[in-house]
Design a protein that fits this description.
The chain is mainly beta. The longest helix has 8 residues. The strands form five sheets. Strands 3, 4, 5, 6, 7, 8, 9, 10, 11 and 12 form a ten-stranded antiparallel sheet that branches. A six-stranded mixed β-barrel has the order 13-17-14-16-15-18. The chain contains two helices and 26 strands.
Length: 402
């Protein structure tokens, strides 16, 4: 476990599953702008610790928690219903009002639907044009409210969205292939605690934490997933928490679009630079002395079971949403899916894939018949060299033969 930690302690919302939702309607064809007032509906299934008061989304009443970043705070998150435009746009203007008492914050983010998946989240400023990675006819808005353990409750209200042709260069980016970097991994632990997306951490859990909310998936979603590998094993896991150390260090992005620490090379976490090179005076964004170079936190099931780690150490991480390639989504109700060294259930287990995680798919082959959530099939997917999962448990298309 990290030496600074105590050892204990779906991708899109549907209108039918929402107490908060955004109802969006297109304006008449003669106008370029259209607005989206926040509307009362049912509680969104993947929101966390937020409530509605009038037209405002307000931080809820849950007590403060400590997640991967080791900052004790009250937090709330709400993803609003995705918005469709009448035609593609390369930029949007998000409007909103907000209130943030001393020590608290209210952030509004947007992401775009591109190439059949969501881009990364990026923060917006009310009334200011925000460029998208490419033209799209669908975007989604997210609200994050944070506050100290005691004090007031930040809020966001009067949310509107409209396309625009006036924006600066894109702040988000698309890459030809997902970034892969060699980073130091630590064990998160904190069983019984709550992650940044509202997930309650279970024993031998399967998820990871990265030090930026730009790649934070909703509770139960694998929209943002990683492949984490040692020399002999791999894990495919969703990103459900924020940390370790920092919360605005999207180090997997190019330096120009990185939220903080733009003078560091792509793929190098700020904590690693602080620990190894004395960067930022050896401190993280909160002024704490960095005690290890961690760039990723692993839940216990990933650390102990999927990767068989006995101590913190270096791993290879691929940030799957940052590039193209064959993908499938693990479709199980709980737990994990075994990754085997052969296309049959007697093959040795060489890794695991968590619930809702995306897996890379290199090709497909035939093997043992398996019955799962996707029916009965003898197709197995190769997700890494010498590693296979049964397609009966993975929602995926058809791929070339291995």
């Amino acid at each position: 476990m990290r030496i600074t930690r105590r050892s204990t302690s779906a991708a899109c919302l549907t209108a039918a599953a929402a107490i908060l939702a955004a109802t969006f309607t297109l304006a008449p064809p003669s106008t370029a702008a259209w607005t989206a007032p926040v509307a009362v509906s049912a509680q969104p299934a993947d929101s966390s610790n937020v409530k509605l008061k009038g037209n405002r989304i307000i931080l809820g009443d849950a007590a403060a928690t400590v997640g991967a970043a080791e900052i004790k705070q009250r937090s709330g998150l709400a993803e609003l219903t995705p918005v469709r435009f009448g035609s593609p746009t390369s930029a949007v203007v998000v409007g909103y009002t907000s209130g943030a008492p001393a020590g608290s914050s209210a952030e509004v983010d947007v992401r775009a639907w591109l190439n059949d998946r969501w881009s990364e989240w990026t923060a917006v400023t009310s009334g200011t044009p925000t460029s998208l990675p490419a033209a799209t006819d669908q975007v989604q808005v997210r609200i994050i409210v944070l506050a100290p353990p005691a004090g007031g409750k930040p809020w966001v209200g009067d949310v509107t969205v409209q396309p625009t042709d006036k924006a600066a260069a894109p702040r988000m980016s698309l890459q030809a292939a997902p970034l892969k970097s060699h980073v130091f991994a630590t064990r998160e632990g904190l069983v019984g605690g709550t992650t940044a997306n509202g997930h309650v951490i279970a024993s031998r859990d399967h998820f990871v934490a990265l030090p930026s909310r730009r790649g934070l998936a909703g509770n139960g979603s694998g929209t943002y997933s990683v492949k984490v590998c040692t020399a002999t094993r791999c894990a495919f896991e969703p990103v459900w928490d924020v940390g370790p150390w920092n919360t605005k260090d999207d180090y997997w992005n190019p330096s120009a679009t990185r939220e903080m620490w733009k003078d560091l090379p792509q793929g190098k976490p700020e904590a690693q630079a602080a620990y190894q090179n004395g960067y930022n005076g050896g401190k993280d964004q909160f002024g704490r002395t960095v005690a290890n170079p961690a760039g990723i936190d692993l839940a216990d099931g990933v650390f102990w079971d999927a990767l068989k780690l006995a101590d913190n150490g270096w791993v290879d991480v691929t940030y799957l949403w940052t590039g193209d390639g064959g993908r499938g989504t693990v479709s199980i109700s709980s737990g994990y899916l075994n990754v085997r060294n052969a296309p049959n259930s007697t093959g040795a287990v060489v890794g695991m894939a968590g619930k809702s995680a995306q897996v890379t798919v290199e090709c497909q082959t035939t093997g043992e018949n398996v019955t799962g959530s996707q029916g009965t099939s003898n197709v197995w997917l190769r997700v890494n060299a010498g590693m296979y999962v049964a397609k009966a448990w993975v929602s995926a298309g058809t791929f070339g033969t291995c």
